Batch of 2 targets.
Target 1
Amino acid sequence: MKNPLEVHGVGPYREGQGKGMKERRVSSPANYRFEDRFLFVVVPLFMLDAALGFFGFHYHHLQPVGALAIVCAVLQSLPIVACIVVFGLYLGEEKDEFQKGILVQSMLWSTGATLAVTTFWGSMEKYSQAPRMDVALVQFVFCIVYIVALAVNGWRYR
Amino acid sequence: MKNRLKVLRAERDWSQADLAVKLEVSRQSVNAIETGKFDPSLPLAFKLARLFGTTIEEIFTDEA
């Protein structure tokens, strides 16, 4: 007889019923919380960051000054702070060592790639007069590489 | 590290997802253990042994 917790999908690990997923999926509560936090906290902050960046690029004559500039800078740095906090919470809550390892590996790849890209571009700016890269874009590089790394790891261990 | 997880699972007609639910880990973890890409921790190895009613040595074989 099946464990009633498993049947109703409320056990520590449950299949992805009611989530609109075609594929059978087993995930942990920590993973569901991680996905929810990422979707409802980190993604909106990145959208706000992109909107501020877009506004600053197109309306550069309306650049904020003084305290407003500091507020804008803090708002633009919030997404990466939220991202790291969400990763930290997940690592603290997740009991599955393999899944933790995947996250750490993906973060390591994205950190390494971000450092490599920014160092390379910094040298290009210094020695080859390459166009200046907006430092605020670094967090986007980190996130893009992280998403790619996560997808590659997901494919490797599918 | 080699293991007999796939055989033991097949004997009970369990899918990787079934085993994952019983072990409270993800299906990817079960797949990674089965294919030898990931060695489980001692608590997880004991959990596997208890689940299959055997010993850790019966499931895992050290290649060294």
Note: The two ends of chain B are 9 Å apart (CA to CA).
Target 2
Amino acid sequence: MKKKNFLIIALIVGLIAAYFVWDNFLRTAPSMKRLDAEFKVNAIAFYTEFEQDENGANAKYLNKVVEVNGLVSDIEFPENSKPIISLKTDGFSPIRCTMETDLDQDQLGLRLNSEVTLKGEYIGVLLMEIQLNRSIIIKP
Amino acid sequence: MKSLKILITLILIFGAVAVQAQDRYLTRKGHIKFFSHAPLEDIEAHNNKALSIVDLSKGQIAVDMLIKAFEFEKKLMQEHFNENYMESGKYPKSTFKGNFEVPANLQSMKDGTYELDVKGDLTIHGVTKPVETKASLTVAGGKLSGSVKFQVKVKDYKIKIPKVVVRNIAEDVEVTATFDYEPYK
């Protein structure tokens, strides 16, 4: 009976330890596909919001998931990085979205000036350049 | 006579604008790499969306980057970097603002590589520290590019590394940056 109790306690302690290790060291954030967008915006309107009040817009969107639709103005495939898709705005800087996974031109299936809806995390703005991370294509 | 005056004035105005335009250069596609060499593993990360502006008349350089734009090979590493060490949700940006003496040939954009002593302030993880480093600017066929490499002491910027991973992360991290500038009007 004593041995059985000991085994049960050992099992519980083991499970707690395993959960601790998983929670602290192994668990990854859910993929973008499983996150709901808190905001749905048009690229031009999104940019205008920053033009009118950069600090306010930054605080509103920072670290939030945003769905943006617009026209593709550039597609980059930098070395050591996921592809970056730029969306057109009315201002002097595009919205630059880094993709969540490595995709080649065919897999992206995008052309310049084609319309696209992307979902990604807004991570900040640098001299009016709005940056999204971990983006995925919702509608090509 | 009057039209000649107007012409001269116009030439002077456009000339001044052209000269001014050539002093400032910008890139939004700056590449920053950091490399950590520790007993158990080597870790590197890349950021291809750094902003940098150089002013050759004033001898100023500024670099601005978002911490979350750093990409790692392993997703889990990237998350730990952002959440546990850099706290990028709280401190999203890292910046450098510095000054250097401008060699006359650099100011006139003569081809060559110019080694510079740059002094400035580096802000990481909400902590600003003065730094001094060697950097180089290269002019080739009217194009300006820059590169710099220096060490960052993780401790100086109050970045806490838990004991469990102390053998996985270096105390001094090597930062390499390259910029291909374009004229900025």
Note: Chain B is about 20% helix and 50% strand.
